[in-house]
Amino acid sequence: MSFPDHFSAVASDYAAARPEYPPALFDWIAAVAPARGLCWEAGCGSGQATRDLATRFERVYASDPSSAQIAQAPKLSNVDFVVEPGERCGLPDASVDAACVAQALHWFDRPAYFSEVARVLKPGGVLVTWGYQDIIVPPRLQAVNDAFQSTILRYWPSERDDINAAYAGYAWPFPAIEVPEFTLGVEWPLPRMLGYFSSYSASKRHREATGIDVVAQYRQQFESAWGDAPTLQLHWPLFVHAFRKQD
Q1: Is beta strand 184-188 parallel, antiparallel or unpaired with respect to 232-236?
Q2: Which of 7, 14, 45, 1 has its CA nearest to residue 157?
Q3: Domain assignment of residue 125, yes or no
Q4: Exposed, middle or buried by CB within 10 Å (0-12, 13-18, 19+), for 183?
Q5: What is the domain range of residue 38?
Q6: Alpha-helix residue ranges (DSSP H) falling in the chain
Q7: Longest distance between any two alpha carbons in the chain, whole Å
Q8: For 17, which DSSP code?
Q9: Which residues, 6 or more positions from 58, have their beta carbon under 8 angstroms from its beta carbon?
Q10: I need a labelling partner for 199 at 20 to 30 A (CA). Which of 21, 73, 128, 189 fits?
């Protein structure tokens, strides 16, 4: 099965630079799952969420269609990393307590994925999917960040609109369950933030179209705006959707 591959070429940047999700999110997923036996994480990428899921579930089946992304994943004793599309997995029927997708559902063939989730989830099992929108920077970085984001705006794949809409309008397969509010924030040095920008699919597409490294183009402006601070606080609006398969 083909898939929109925007990250294999920047897999190492993606693994090194993406933000970590709040621990409270994973605690909550484990609490609402009917058991903590098996979690399927489709679109796992290089394992940003997998590490935390593996500390809450006895076993995690983590799949991604990109072998380059899987190659960046950590070695975890209770995780099976598999090169496999989210629309088709090797798990048995009614075997999964929680199906999770982190910042990836907008790339999926959702009807096919939802059908596969319905097949592998146990009765009472949960589907939890989440994503984060544009970075919120401190005021000192706002002007240069606005200019950078404007430069790459037209290079975002169309699926980015789904992130901006927080997955509004999706035809979800099960009844929704109430989700508490979670916060995604980090304290990063400048190189980490620039590495994060380099991992954007839009940055990659801009480079392919123009031959210009857009992050390098704005590096000096970011350095001047950043000043002498070793780290700064950065935030993202985080949205979470959760659903339970009926008995």
Answers
A1: antiparallel
A2: 7
A3: yes
A4: exposed
A5: 8-244
A6: 11-17, 23-32, 50-54, 67-71, 110-120, 142-152, 160-164, 190-198, 201-210, 214-226
A7: 58
A8: H
A9: 36, 37, 38, 78
A10: 128
In angstroms, the CA 30 to CA 217 distance is 43
Nearest to 131 by CA among 112, 108, 154, 97: 108
Cβ atoms of 58 and 39 within 8 Å: the answer is: no
The sign one gets for the Cα dihedral 102, 105, 108, 111 is positive
- Residue 155 within any structural domain of the chain: yes
CA dihedral 72, 156, 236, 198 (to 10 degrees): 50
The answer to the question of residue 123 being in a domain is yes
Domain assignment present for residue 22? The answer is yes
| First CA to last CA distance, the chain | 31
Residue type, 189: P
Whether 230 contacts 31, CB under 8 Å = no
Structure tokens at 195: 């590495």
Instruction: Return the structure tokens found at 110.
Output: 């959702």
Specify which residues 64 forms β-bridges with. Answer: 83
Number of folded domains in the chain? 1
The DSSP code for 18 is: S
Per-residue pLDDT of the chain (247 residues; tens, 9 = 90+): 444 544 444 545 555 778 899 999 999 999 999 999 999 999 999 899 999 999 999 999 999 999 998 998 999 999 999 999 999 999 999 999 999 999 999 999 999 999 999 999 999 999 999 999 999 999 999 999 999 999 999 999 999 999 999 999 999 999 999 999 999 999 999 999 999 999 898 999 999 999 999 999 999 999 999 999 999 999 999 999 999 999 8
* Beta bridge mates, 39: 60, 98
How far apart are the C-alpha atoms of 183 and 67, rounded to whole Å?
31
